[in-house]
Write a structure and sequence with these properties.
By secondary structure, the chain is mainly alpha-helical. 52% of the residues lie in helices and 6% in strands.
Length: 159
């Protein structure tokens, strides 16, 4: 029986039939160290958004202190959405040399970046989904978190 052609064009060689990305078994370099890099990138992004939040608070005559978590999550949403939509990675991810890709191997567009960011924020807001997501990143072959699995995205080392 002839092999079906992959409906997802990709720049990566050695991809499997269901993914436009390299297979983690045959091309592990694309996924090497990604969970750790995602953790460091998250820390960098957390600090950047915290600094941005601290800069914004005085401009609200310090009334933002009454709704600080909401302000932080709003700024985090805007930061993550805009950076992922414009480069498929946050500044922390860029620093660590990783980027998000779709199942087809493409960079995330603005709409998918927004949905990914909303999923990330919802997952981060509660303990159980956050722990589940971290566990998935450590155990799944592509290092995907909960939001990644739902959306069919993954983080890879930049090519």
């Amino acid at each position: 029986m002839p092999r079906m052609t992959d409906p997802y064009p990709s720049q990566f060689e050695g991809r499997d039939r269901l993914w436009g990305l390299p297979d983690p078994d045959t091309h592990p370099g694309f996924y090497a160290g990604v969970p750790f890099k995602r953790l460091v990138a998250w820390l960098v992004d957390f600090v950047l958004v915290a600094i941005l939040t601290a800069i914004v608070v005085p401009f609200t005559a310090f009334t933002a202190l009454f709704f600080l978590p909401l302000l932080y999550f709003t700024l985090d949403l805007v930061y993550r959405w805009s950076t992922i939509a414009n480069g498929s990675s946050t500044w922390g991810m860029r620093l660590m040399g990783i980027e998000l890709r779709t199942r087809a191997g493409q960079k995330l567009d603005s709409g998918l970046a927004l949905v990914h960011t909303l999923g990330f924020i919802l997952t981060s807001a509660t303990m159980l989904p956050q722990l589940l997501s971290a566990g998935m990143m450590l155990t799944l072959p592509r290092g995907q978190g909960l939001t990644d699995v739902v959306l069919g995205t993954t983080a890879i080392n930049r090519v």
